[in-house]
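It is worth pausing here to work through a concrete case rather than discussing structure prediction in the abstract. The textbook approach is simple: state the sequence, then state the predicted structure, then interpret. We follow exactly that order.
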Amino acid sequence: MAGSNISIDAGNANAIADVLEQLVQQGQNLKPALSQIGEYLVEATQDRFQLELAPDGSLWDPLAPETIKRKNGDSRILRQSSMLVDTILYDASDDMLLVGTNMEYGATHQFGREADGIPAREWLGLTTGPWDDEAFILVILSDHLL
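Step two, the predicted structure:
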């Protein structure tokens, strides 16, 4: 994915890593579980996108007045054409899950671009706010345990 993605290393001593390790020890193919997690994360990210929320549950910075004027009064954030939200996708393999977009400007919005006055509006990541992504991921993974 050339646009924007993040890396969440489940190799740390956390609950997700523990269940993934159990699946590996059972000889499970991780791709079906990772695909389900990918589907969930795409949907959860799109839901938060519509609410203009960062993964931590905070609201994105509002648009500058000149931006709203340029958009003919449209104050929706990151959704002028809906291209970014419509291109959130995942790619799962036997040992990796990538979630992100192939739109290069996805990174600009995720991290901001100070030189152009574009604030970071984090849209990609595991939620710690209104949704508890870790809990949902653990349910998905537990369904794959023998």
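Step three, interpretation. The first strand starts at residue 4 and ends at 5. The CA atoms of residues 88 and 101 lie 5 Å apart.
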